[in-house]
Design goal:
With 114 residues, the chain is an all-beta fold. The chain is built from no helices and 10 strands. Strand 5 and strand 6 form a beta hairpin. It is globular and about 40 Å long.
Length: 114
């Protein structure tokens, strides 16, 4: 499985973005997928996780109530809807499989202006 995140951009505080994670390869539907982010000078952190079937999600406290992860296993896609964005959400966002990490790829830049 290979994953590639996209959909980032520049948005004002309070705005919304929807990130997409495109999967290629087999057995994607059997894998839990995580959304991670890394801000400048900080460690990469897991902000959301969605189970293989999509029925279970978990979020970091910092994004709970604002971010929503979803997936479409027919299309081999995972999404992260980000609402009420804050400047502290500025980071490069990645998707990966937390229980068997893949190459991180380039991620997608999200910049939230105040």
């Amino acid at each position: 499985v290979q994953l590639q995140a996209s959909g980032g951009g520049l948005v004002q505080a309070g705005g919304s973005l929807r990130l997409s994670c495109a999967a290629s390869g087999s057995r994607f539907s059997a894998k839990t997928v995580g959304w991670y982010r890394q801000a400048p000078g900080k460690q990469r952190e897991l902000v959301a996780r969605i189970s293989s079937g999509g029925g279970s999600t978990n979020y970091a406290d910092s994004v709970k109530g604002r971010f929503t992860a979803s997936r479409d296993n027919v299309k081999n896609m995972v999404y992260l809807q980000m609402n009420s964005l804050k400047p502290e959400d500025t980071a490069v966002y990645y998707c990966n499989t937390p229980y068997s990490l893949l190459d991180w790829g380039q991620g997608t830049q999200v910049t939230v202006s105040s």
